[in-house]
Structure formats: structure tokens, C-alpha cells
Amino acid sequence: MALTKPASRTLQRQIDLTTAVCQERLLTTHLRHLLAFVELVEPSVPFDAALDIYVRILRLSPEQARNVGSRALAEIGRRSGVPSELGAQLSAMLDEGPDDEPESASVEEERGRSNAMFARLRRRIRGRVQDELRFRIDLAAARAEDALLETHVENALIFVRALRDELQPTEAVELYLETMLLPEGLADVIYNRTLRLLADEALPPLDARDARERREPVVLSPASPAAPAAAG
Q: CB-based burial of residue 175 (10 Å sphere; 0-12 exposed, 13-18 middle, 19+ buried)?
């Protein structure tokens, strides 16, 4: 555990505020990539189906899916000139779900319906959407995953800076990972990348070449390899 003793009220408030900032940054990242994903697959895939694909590929929780879906609808409405009141109603409809859906539905039933819908969507993509679109969906998902990873690392650094008077950097990073309930494999990657950035600030370079690489941007060769062929 990152905290070996109960946090003071001041520290807990700082943790809560920093967590809210980090969650908002993650939501903003999701919104940006979801909107791009919706534009990528339309008109072949409607908004609800595109949202479901994005949610499943990126493994969003139900709460995250509702939040990002609601904001995406509001933003699409704003871009389309939909009055703000109607946009708010559409967002509320997404949060509430279908009117005829039983309120007592179990988690297993919800997961079963979601899995069935996702299976139908996969069959649609296999049978009706061109292979090029499938490949672009894979690329969009990979880009979103990488952007979220970067956001997590930046968030962990925000934790370090915000809590530096109370916690050691490694403790702050561990606290961020625990607060966000990240799976072990992903948490390990974020932990190592964050500490690598802290090491670059705190430690001397390994050698002159290492110092030069920090200063010089990476320039790709004009003869870069061709993109991989689309999966059949």
C-alpha cells in the first residue's frame, strides 16, 4: 500500500482534488478519441454501435462508458447546431438507458446483452465493412490505448507534484495506480515509465550519447517501412 497510515484531512482533500483532475484528464482523452472513432466508422456503423465497440475495445467501466458517451453526444450535438437543451436531453437518455429496460437487471444479464451486441457488431464488420475499415479500427484503437497510457503517466506525475510535501515520489505513483484501480500489467508499465521520467530529471545521463539523445528529436528516415497489410 502507498499509504502506511491514515491520511490527514488535508492530505485526503489534496488526494481527492488531484484524483478528480486526473479522472477529468482521462475522460477528455477518451472523448477526443471516441469522437474521432465515430467519424472514422460512420456511416457504416451508427453512433450507439460505435460507442459499444469503443467501450469494449478500450475496456471502459459502465460508469466511464456513460460519462464519455454522454459527453460525446453533447459534443456531436454542439457541432451539428443542436440546441443545448436537446443535447442535454440526449445525454440524459444515454445515462438512463432504454425506458423499457428492467431496473432490476443483474450484472450478468447486462454483460450478456453487451456480449451479444458486440458479437453482432463483429459479424457486421466481418461481413459488410471493408477490410480497410477493420484495419483502420484496429489502428484507431491502438492510438487511443497509447494516448491513454501517456495520460496515465502524466497523471502519475501530477500526483507526484501535488503530494510531494507528504509522500515520496514512488509512494505517490503507487497511490495513483491504486486509486485508479488499474490492472497489474498496465500498472507496472505506468509505474516504470513514470519513474523513468523522474530518473531523467534526477539522475545524471548515462553517457554523452544519452544526453545528446535527450536534446535531439527523433527524425524518421524517408525510406520508412510500408504499413502492414490489412488482416484478412
A: buried
Lowest mean pLDDT among 23-27, 134-138, 157-161, 208-212: 208-212
- Render pLDDT for 95-109 as a digit per residue (tens, 0 to 9): 554 444 444 445 455
Write out the three cell numbers for 32: 477526443
Q: State the DSSP code for 3.
A: -
- Residue pair 157/197 in contact (Cβ under 8 Å)? The answer is yes
Q: What whole-number distance in Å separates Cα of residue 193 and Cα of residue 150?
A: 9
Alpha carbon distance 34, 55 (integer Å):
9
- What is the number of helices (H) and of strands (E) in the chain? 9, 0
**Per-residue model confidence (pLDDT) at position 191:** 98
Residues 194-222 as b/e (b if ≥16 CB within 10 A, e otherwise) read bbeebeeeeeeeeeeeeeeeeeeeeeeee
Q: What is the pTM of this model?
A: 0.71
Nearest to 50 by CA among 79, 25, 76, 12: 76
Say if CB 118 and CB 52 are below 8 A apart.
yes
- According to the model, what pLDDT value does residue 98 have? 42
Greater confidence, 206 or 2?
Answer: 206
Distance (Å, whole) CA 221 – CA 190: 29
Bigger pLDDT: 131 or 20?
20
What angle is formed at CA 104 by the lines to CA 99 and CA 106, rounded to 5 degrees? 115
